[in-house]
Design brief:
455 residues; alpha/beta; Aspartate Aminotransferase, domain 1; Aspartate Aminotransferase, domain 2; 7-stranded mixed β-sheet; 4-stranded mixed β-sheet; 40% helix; globular; binds pyridoxal-5'-phosphate
């Protein structure tokens, strides 16, 4: 496919940049330098590549934002979306149902582990998390346990940007000057094995992290705790892979203490680790709720879901008084988004994309770990098609700038990564081949060498 810069009848790139600076507020905009800052203009995309407004090609290292699983430029996706728009673009999910949403709910129920058979569609990941947490509150109110609502979350966890999802997010830098609820949540300390004390084994670190949860439950009291929310891998926190066995042991503790386990699979769901969902297949847990979004439509249209177990829903449906599940959005189960999700799943199946992830991940992880040979790379970690390098330098200020320096050097060479302080994160489209993985890591290595030499 050839790509031409910007549609011919659009204003020129400089005008667009000016309008963008003057009128558009982007998520996480650096508000103090906002008017002076240009976001990259992305004009078109195909496969694992995209082109900027000036026609330069890049590998999409972050895969959109952990979401472009099937890659870009899918004509069959465009047709599925367009067919659904013509047939039925919208109907109210409060009173009506549609063919795509009914089929999709059945497919997701079949993919999800255990008795997670009930799908509540949302507009994205934050609203899926919000729904899961509100469901926990509703569940405990319905069973006459209104005191049992505290949420346990973790430092470095990211769960979204609604008030509730933001409140359970444990990334200090993300809290900035917005308000959030502090009385609803308690945070466990960082689980990142990279920060364990020198000489401590990974097994002892795992024991200590599990003990953190036990201790917190003891302190607060299980009768006051409603849920534990956890990403299987803390992605936006820097692709933190907890020590082996951590997920299973914390899940067992939650079950022993009648605490709902919410697995936030907004990133790990839909193929990132080679399975529809990672909770059971990779980490051997069957949560009470799973949240997902992003890869559900491969980013072609917005959609999220909160998948709830039969057990939770059955208990919530038995109460003294009649009750409605008053949670939802105008665009819950949007038929066009559901049609996109169905086409996405069909493409996954036809092209055996989950198998591709399982086949190419060892090479991806091998190239990633190999980056540890560079002095500035303190840690290289990941799983499946998720990866992160954490850089180190003599002084803290230099260290903090390393993520953006690597990003800049990569950008020059035609690779986009996601910088996070001293880290660079990547999660490319799941259709990536071994050769493209090499292309990506060759650029990354060249960028690391450049940054290291300039330090
Ligand atoms: C684990 C996790 N949960 C929730 C969210 C929020 O999703 P959204 O941005 O679609 O609202 C994200 C977004 O990156 C995420 O990584």
């Amino acid at each position: 496919m050839t790509n031409t810069a910007l549609t011919s009848n659009a204003p020129d790139l400089e005008t667009l940049k000016k309008w963008d600076r003057l009128h558009q507020i982007h998520p996480w905009a650096a508000i103090d330098s906002w008017r002076g800052y240009d976001n990259m203009f992305v004009d078109s995309a195909d496969g694992i590549y995209f082109w900027d407004g000036a026609g330069k090609r890049y590998i999409d290292g972050p895969g959109g934002m952990w979401c472009s699983q099937i890659g870009y430029g899918r004509k069959e996706m465009a047709d599925a979306i367009s067919d659904q728009v013509i047939k039925l673009p919208f109907t109210s999910p409060f009173t009506n149902s549609t063919q795509p949403s009914a089929i999709l709910s059945k497919k997701i129920a079949d993919m999800a582990p255990g008795d997670l058979n009930n799908v509540f569609f949302t507009t994205g990941g934050s609203t899926a998390v919000d729904t899961a947490l509100r469901t926990m509150q509703y569940f405990n109110n319905r069973r006459g346990l209104p005191e049992k609502k505290m949420i346990i979350a973790r430092e470095k966890g990211y769960h979204g940007s609604t008030y509730l999802a933001h409140s359970v997010t444990g990334k200090e830098r993300d809290k900035s000057h917005f308000d959030f609820a502090t009385n609803l949540v308690q945070f466990l300390p960082d689980v990142n094995p990279y920060i364990r004390p020198d000489g401590m084994s990974i097994e002892d670190w795992c024991d200590a992290k599990v003990e953190d949860l036990r201790e917190m439950i003891k302190q607060i009291g299980a009768d006051k705790i409603g849920a534990f929310i956890a990403e299987p891998i803390l992605s936006s926190g820097g692709v933190i892979v907890p020590a082996k066995g951590y997920q299973m042991r914390t899940w067992e503790i939650c079950r022993e203490n009648d605490i709902l386990y919410i697995s936030d699979e907004v990133v790990t769901g839909f193929g990132r680790l080679g399975h529809w969902f990672a909770s059971e297949e990779v980490f051997e847990i069957i949560p009470d709720m799973i949240t997902c979004a992003k890869g559900l439509t491969s980013g072609y249209l917005p959609l999220g879901a909160c998948i709830i177990s039969d057990r939770v829903l059955e208990i919530a449906s038995q109460g003294d008084e009649p009750s409605a599940f008053t949670n939802g959005y105008t665009y819950s189960a949007h038929p066009v988004s559901c049609a996109a999700a169905l086409k996405n799943i069909e493409i996954f199946e036809n092209e055996r994309i989950l198998e591709n992830v399982r086949n190419v991940s060892p090479h991806f992880q091998h190239r990633l770990k190999d980056l540890m040979k560079y002095d500035i790379v303190g840690d290289a970690r990941g799983m499946g098609l998720l990866g992160c390098i954490e850089c180190k330098a003599e002084d803290l200020e230099a260290e903090r700038s390393l993520g953006s320096k690597i990003d800049e050097a990569c950008e020059e060479l035609g690779l986009l990564v996601r910088p996070l302080i001293n880290m660079a994160v990547f999660s490319p489209p799941l259709i990536i081949t071994i050769e493209q993985i090499d292309e990506m890591f060759d650029i990354l290595e060249a960028a690391i060498i450049k940054v290291e030499n300039n330090l």
